[in-house]
Amino acid sequence: MIPTSTVEEQEPGPGCAPKPSKLALLRRSVAEDLRWAWRYLVLGRLAASPFMPRAGRFLLYRSMRLGIRSANIWPRCTIVGRRLSIGPGTFVNQQCFFEAIAPIQIGRACQIGMSVMIVTSHHQLTGGGALGNVTCRPVTIGDRVWIGARALILPGVAIADRVVVAAGAVVSSDLVELGVYAGVPARKIRDL
Predict the structure, then answer these.
(1) How far apart are CA 7 and CA 59, in angstroms?
(2) What pLDDT is stored for residue 181 in this prediction?
(3) Active-site residue (options: 22, 28, 54, 123)
(4) Catalytic residue flag (residue 122)
(5) Based on the number of CB atoms within 10 Å of its own CB, is 110 exposed (0-12), middle (13-18) or buried (19 or more)?
(6) How many CB atoms lie within 10 A of CB 91?
(7) pTM (predicted TM-score)
C-alpha cells in the first residue's frame, strides 16, 4: 500500500524537487518487491534447501555478496538483509535466523547451535506505549564463541572471544568477560 502522505499532489517549494508521481512510486515499489523476491528465492529456498550441498550453499551466499567465509552452514537458515559476515571455520547449525539489516559480524571458529536467532532491529517506544520508528544496531560476536540452541541475541550486543552462551539464553547486553552465560536476560553463571 502506498502511503497517502507521499502521494498527495503538492506544489514543490523553491529549490525542492517535485514529488514523485503515483506511477513512479508504484514502479519503485514493484522493483523493490522483485529484488526481495529474488533474494528470498536464492537465500530462502535454494541455499536453505536440505538438498543443496554445503559447497553449493557457500557459493550461493558468496554470489549474493554476503561476507560468509565458512562453508559449514547447515540447511534451513534464514538470512534477511545483506550485512552478514561469518568468519572461517565457524559452524552454523540448521534453522538459524539472521536479521542482518544492521551489520552482524561473527568471528572465526564459532559454534552456533540450532535455531539461534540474531536480530538487529527494534522499535522504540514512544509516549503512550505506541511504537516509534525502527532503529537498527549492529551485533558483533568474537572468535571461538559457542552459542547454544535457541539462544536469542538482541540488537546492539557485543560478545567477547571464547564466551559460551547457554541454550535458550536471551542476550540483551554485552558479554565482555570470559565465562558461561545463561538465563533471561543472560547472566554469567560460571567462569571458564
Answers:
(1) 41
(2) 98
(3) 123
(4) no
(5) buried
(6) 15
(7) 0.81
